[in-house]
Amino acid sequence: MQFPFIITLQSRSEETSFRKRFLADEKSPNVFLHLWSLGVEMQFYLIVPFIFLFLQILKKDVLKFIAVLLTAIIGCIAFLCFNSPIAFNFMPLRLWQFAAGFCALYWNKLNPEEELPENDITHHHLLRHTTPPLRKAVPQLELDPDCVSRLYSHHCQRLRTVQRPGISLLGADVFACSSKIIDANEALEFNFYSSNPNLKDECMMRDMDPPVPAANLYQYCLSPPGNGTLKIMNIGNSYAKNLNEPIRDPFKFNYSEFRYLSVLGGFAIFNDPDTQPHTDLFRQQVQKYKPDVLFITARFSDYFKLPIQDNDQLVQEINDNIKFFEKHAKKIYIMGSMPVFRFNFMNHFLQYVISKPEDLEKLNLDQKIADEERKHAVERLNRVECEKCKIYDPSPEFLENGKYLTFDRNTTMSYVDNSIHITETGFKLLEPTYAKLAREAMDMV
Questions:
Q1: Domain total for the chain?
Q2: How does pLDDT run across 145-160, given as a tens digit for each residue?
Q3: Residues 364, 370, 371, 375, Cα dihedral to 10°
Q4: Is 191 domain-assigned?
Q5: Cβ distance 436 to 397 under 8 Å?
Q6: DSSP H or E segment with residue 230
Q7: pTM across the whole model
Q8: What are the CA-CA distances from residue 425 to residues 131, 187, 406 (Å)?
Q9: Which of 132, 167, 186 is the last residue of a domain?
Q10: Torsions phi, psi for 261 (to 5 deg)
Q11: Distance between alpha carbon 239 and the CA centroid of its chain, in Å?
Q12: Where do the TM regions start and end (predicted)?
């Protein structure tokens, strides 16, 4: 009976002795903290799967961002509340660092407008340059051989990671499909300095009379004569060239003259302080040719969208120029202010086509935001005093359910290019607008 009691007493004595020796050893705290740290790691990795499951329940990225942000903040506060030797091995340290990483991930998803640097080799550029058999001839595209070789090497490394034939074939199909969409969209890119890609007839004259210095950066074209008697002229900035054929087509050659004058930074009815003054040039040409129908086709600058002041000088300038044009034209059509599409839209759109096709609808413009941005420009145009003028707004053709559409859902073709000009796909939406204006002009003049 005494033997078990003696054994127990001896064990307790040895345990107490071991504990004293352990605490006396200078290495013991380090060993203890190390073991504690391992325990914390085990606890953390047991919690991680539940964090992932919780994030899967939340459907929207904004909710996921809020969840991981709160986790990071709470974990960081708990971490800061502990003694530094203990806190370093405390689980909240792992937790808030882990959550902070996910904050960065979901923040990027909440801000899709961020663009990649121009020198970054994106998958978009990879598709553009590494599929010659699938590409159509795009005259505007010139390839740098060194760049192409690097892209080929990069692409080959990506292909080596795909082992299963089924996945390879599926990837090839997606690759080919994306490449065709990219080619088709890039072929629509507008180039101010090249011949008009959608011009159906050769220009009879490309130089103005009298000659204008090349520094004015203009494009001029006199189309072959039609079968009618109307003299039609289209003036403005690069949009005059961009939309020239959609304006000309509905007349079906029912004119004797059709010419356009497109000047970079030329708004026809006012001068922007940030660009060269061009109104005198437009006045000179309108006075010289005296068109029956005058189209003023320009995308207005930010200067035109400034708040309207009492006795607004810009409104007075517009009215002065309009009165001059009225003396020499029988009917004037002025294109209204368009919604603001982002620059480099085509590249941004193609990135979504490749990486996030399910989110393409996010690229459409919210009507309320777009209309608020251009409201001063619309109001300024409404103050124009002109009996022969009609201000037309083509933007309703792009409007659907409170959104200004930026691409065709059926063909995945963009309505806007990188320089925010309208593409041929967008021209189809504008056909009813310009057909109506053409009928009206032919009936009234």
A1: 3
A2: 344 333 334 444 443 4
A3: -160
A4: no
A5: no
A6: none
A7: 0.60
A8: 24, 11, 10
A9: 186
A10: -130, 115
A11: 19
A12: 31-55, 62-80
